[in-house]
């Protein structure tokens, strides 16, 4: 009977329950009451589905770094508001459809912090997508050529959290500016976005170009956004010295 039950669990894809029941049989845990056994099996199945969901979300996000908030250095020279970053881990900013703008010189940890927040969002069940922004623009250019542009834009719009890294390394041409405007417009007031950039926010207007569009983008992006301005020496250089 137990063999048949285990087989049916597999067929129903109750893998967490299957493992838990197998462990129970092998250990001969006769101390479980019927109620306790049912509760144990259900909890094991819930945990298994939850963990597999997080794994799927994390894989789909395609983060640049495997990162966690616990790994972030809060040494004083970096001037990071620890309380603010800890608040970000609750992902209330995603619920509130707010943006986070992370700026600082190369190597200070912008991408790592953005990825750490993204990983936390995945662990809470949010759909996240990470892009190097120049690679995203190249992808969208190809999508226009093969007719899948709107499909890509729709996919970006549906992400609960969009992370755009390395913004501002190149000035935007007409096509990039139009694509950026579409992305920001679609997400404004609907979804959360994190942007990481070496440039201070005051320099973004020039990078975007064309005044009217730049004004429109920054009005939607910067207004009421959370700002994280990183200082200090490059973390990469510090690791090499160590």
UniProtKB/TrEMBL annotation:
<comment type="similarity">
    <text>Belongs to the IS21/IS1162 putative ATP-binding protein family.</text>
</comment>
<dbReference type="GO" id="GO:0005524">
    <property type="term" value="F:ATP binding"/>
</dbReference>
<dbReference type="InterPro" id="IPR028350">
    <property type="entry name" value="DNAC/IstB-like"/>
</dbReference>
<feature type="domain" description="AAA+ ATPase">
    <location>
        <begin position="96"/>
        <end position="234"/>
    </location>
</feature>
<dbReference type="InterPro" id="IPR002611">
    <property type="entry name" value="IstB_ATP-bd"/>
</dbReference>
<keyword id="KW-0067">ATP-binding</keyword>
<dbReference type="InterPro" id="IPR003593">
    <property type="entry name" value="AAA+_ATPase"/>
</dbReference>
<dbReference type="GO" id="GO:0006260">
    <property type="term" value="P:DNA replication"/>
</dbReference>
<dbReference type="Pfam" id="PF01695">
    <property type="entry name" value="IstB_IS21"/>
</dbReference>
<protein>
    <submittedName>
        <fullName>DNA replication protein</fullName>
    </submittedName>
</protein>
<keyword id="KW-0547">Nucleotide-binding</keyword>
<dbReference type="InterPro" id="IPR047661">
    <property type="entry name" value="IstB"/>
</dbReference>
<dbReference type="InterPro" id="IPR027417">
    <property type="entry name" value="P-loop_NTPase"/>
</dbReference>
């Amino acid at each position: 009977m137990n063999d048949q039950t285990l087989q049916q669990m597999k067929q129903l894809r109750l893998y967490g329950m299957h493992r838990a029941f197998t462990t129970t049989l092998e250990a001969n845990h006769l101390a479980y009451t019927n109620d306790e056994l049912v509760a144990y099996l259900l909890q094991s199945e819930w945990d298994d589905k939850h963990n597999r969901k997080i794994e799927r979300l994390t894989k789909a996000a395609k983060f640049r770094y495997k990162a966690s908030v616990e790994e972030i250095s809060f040494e004083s020279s970096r001037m990071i508001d620890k309380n603010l970053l800890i608040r970000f881990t609750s992902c209330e900013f995603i619920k509130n459809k707010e943006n986070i703008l992370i700026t600082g010189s190369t190597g200070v940890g912008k991408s790592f912090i953005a990825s750490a927040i993204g990983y936390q969002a995945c662990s809470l069940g949010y759909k996240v997508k990470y892009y190097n922004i120049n690679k995203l623009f190249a992808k969208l250019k190809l999508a226009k050529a093969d007719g899948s542009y709107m499909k890509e834009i729709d996919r970006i719009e549906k992400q609960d959290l969009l992370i755009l890294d390395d913004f501002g390394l190149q000035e935007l041409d007409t096509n990039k500016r139009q694509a950026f405007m579409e992305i920001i417009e679609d997400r404004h007031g609907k979804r959360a976005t994190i942007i990481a950039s070496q440039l201070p926010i005051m320099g973004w207007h020039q990078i975007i170009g064309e005044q009217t569009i730049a004004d429109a983008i920054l009005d939607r992006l910067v207004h009421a956004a959370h700002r994280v301005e990183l200082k200090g020496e490059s973390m990469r250089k510090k690791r090499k010295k160590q």
